[in-house]
Amino acid sequence: MRTVEPLHLRLLRLLRDAGPASRAELGDRLQMPRPRLLAELERLVGLGLVAEAGLAASRGGRRSTLVELDPRLRFAAVDLGASSIDVEVVNGRLEPVAAYAEPADIRSGPKVILHRVNELLHKARVDGAYEKLDGVGVGVPGPVSFRDGVPVSPPIMPGWDRFPVRELLTREHGCPAVVDNDVNIMAIGERHGGVAHSIDDFLFVKIGTGIGCGIYLSGEVYRGTDGCAGDIGHIQVDAHGAVCSCGNVGCLEAVFSGAALAREAVAAARAGTSPALAERLAARGVVTARDVAEGAVEGDVTCIQLIRDGGRRVGQVLAGLVSFTNPSMIVIGGGLAQLGHILLAEIRSVVYRRSLPLATGNLPVVLSELGPRAGVAGAAVLASDVAFGEAS
Q: Which GO terms describe its molecular function (predicted)?
């Protein structure tokens, strides 16, 4: 059951998502008595969260005064990938005012990576993007204790186990911080401003260096008791498959992910079964998932088959989830979403074939609308929520 949110949180989210509004409009939309609403607005003005925004357009009578989120509000959104750092500073409406993206190896450890994040945020301040931050949201590519703000035994993040990420960022920037896993923040971003906008029950599947699933149920992210719900990359799909980074055998992530696809592509190139991949390997000495995507577009049969095999594996896992959760939509994102409609068609085919007709009769399976921005978009939403929540 959805929790009842405090008035101030609903009010601030409404101004964030819908923009400036008159007091009368806010009262109607929130169904709150005018005296209570006015008192809450006055309190939020005093806290520096809300400000007057001029007069509304004339409708023939007296023009009402609009209120908006304070234009000085700033939130930091950080999406840490296995091989990248994406940072944005956004205003109260979650519109970017500064953005930085660069390659980075998450295996460098938390001190190195978070030091670089702080350097980028301080650069944004020096460049005039903000005077102070009001909240920081961070996504990391591994399991997270959302309650404690720390990664927990992340398979591809050596040195990060129980590292106090939230505490460090709160202390560094003097504002509340929140930490979640990368697929959850992508799901949050997609629901806020992407193809799943306002859909209450959906699955967001990230296929990249790892594979994970963000689960939205009844309008809220479902994280599970300890924060590791949706870790579908470690569901076994092949009892005789490759050893996974988690130590088990035949996990979905071990047989189809960025690294697994690159491994299969190299094998196909060396065996001579794929002219497109053999040509790229000879030219550059390496082949990647992008090379498989390009080879498939060129009609290379082996590349197409590699993508279909991966889509079939993902579809098998998703079919079970569809029967279990009965979502309204499945969104596919992450780096391997670049494999495009061959991957999507195979996932759809398996899900529709293996799930109950009642669960798939109105079930769109679509590509992410936000693409690589989904992570920072979701981190910005979380950053604003944690800042607004502390306005109690």
A: kinase activity
User: In this structure, are residues 264 and 313 in contact, taking their beta carbons and an 8 Å threshold?
Assistant: no
**Same domain for 362 and 377:** no
- Evaluate whether residue 2 is within a structural domain: no
Q: Which CATH number characterizes residue 53's domain?
A: 1.10.10.10
Same-domain pairing of 147 and 172: yes
Q: Say which residue the tokens 């994280």 belong to.
A: 223
| Integer CA distances (angstroms), 219 to 19, 178, 200, 222, 269, in order | 21, 19, 4, 9, 45
Domain, as residue range, for 314? 198-368
Between CA 238 and CA 314 the distance in angstroms is 12
Per-residue pLDDT of 128-184, as tens digits, reads 999 999 999 999 999 999 999 999 999 889 999 999 999 999 999 999 999 999 999
pTM above 0.85, yes or no: yes
CA dist., res. 274 & res. 291, Å (int) = 11
